[in-house]
Amino acid sequence: MALSFLSKSQPRMTFLCRKEDEAVIPAPVRAKTALPDWFRKLPPVTETRVSPGDNGLTVKRCMPFLDAMATGWVIGLAATVRMEILDNGKTVNCGWDFDRTMVSNHANHQVAGNPRDPMPPCKFHNYWTIVTPPGWSCLFVPPLNRRNGVFEVVAGVVDTDTYRSEIHFPFFATGEDGLHVLERGTPIVQVIPFRRDTTDLAADIRSESGDEAVVRKTILRQTTASDGWYRKFARAQR
Question: For the domain that residue 192 is a member of, what is the CATH number?
Answer without folding.
Answer: 2.70.40.10
